[in-house]
Amino acid sequence: MNLKQELQTLNDKLDKFRRKLAAAEKRADPTIVMQFKKEIAAITKRISSVKGQQTRELSKEGSTVVGLKFNRVLTKAEQADMGKLKKSVKGLVVVHPMTALGREMGIKQVTGFAPKEF
Predict the structure, then answer these.
(1) Separation of alpha carbons 32 and 92, rounded Å
(2) Pick from 112, 87, 88, 115: which is nearest to 102 by CA?
(3) Pseudo-torsion of CA 42, 38, 35, 16, nearest 10°?
(4) Entry's Pfam families (predicted)?
(5) Which residues on neighbouring strands pair with residue 112, listed in sequence order?
(6) How many CB atoms are located within 10 Å of the residue 14 CB?
(7) Residues 7-54: pLDDT tens digits?
(8) Cβ atoms 14, 43 nearer than 8 A
(9) Where are the strands (E) in 2-115, listed by range?
(10) Residue among 95, 3, 11, 105 at smallest CA distance from 52
């Protein structure tokens, strides 16, 4: 399972445990309340771990993309015919500013990274 799916699953479990905790508190059942508080703490810890892992992977990917020798902003015409551009430039990596990688790298426009000039 990839990190995104795992994070979604963990958030679903956290939501479910919080609802069950609220129901147990309403019933005034102290053993069940303690059990769900422990579960919530464990899930919260796991969620932060997965988010940290996602950040590390994204940072690693960003550093490899920035390590490519040539980069430039893509024109609207190139963006419109991305297939043709990718076929003509071997190893081209296109980064959009609205993706997680683009936000991590701090780019403001659609940028192409490649080992050779294009």
Answers:
(1) 55
(2) 112
(3) -50
(4) DUF2810 (PF10928)
(5) 72, 94
(6) 17
(7) 999 999 999 999 999 999 999 989 999 999 999 999 999 999 999 999
(8) yes
(9) 70-73, 93-95, 111-114
(10) 3
Residues in the chain: 118
- Enumerate helices (H) and strands (E) in the chain, giving the number of each: 5, 3
* C-beta atoms surrounding 92 within 10 Å: 19
Say which residue the tokens 């309340």 belong to. Answer: 33
The pLDDT of residue 110 = 94
DSSP codes joined into one string, 49-78? HHHHHHHHHHHHHHHHHHTSSEEEEPPHHH
Tokens of 35: 């059990």
Amino acid making up residue 87: K
What is d(CA 17, CA 53) in angstroms, rounded to the nearest whole number? 24
pLDDT given at position 1? 64
3 state DSSP class of 25: helix
One-letter amino acid of 30? P
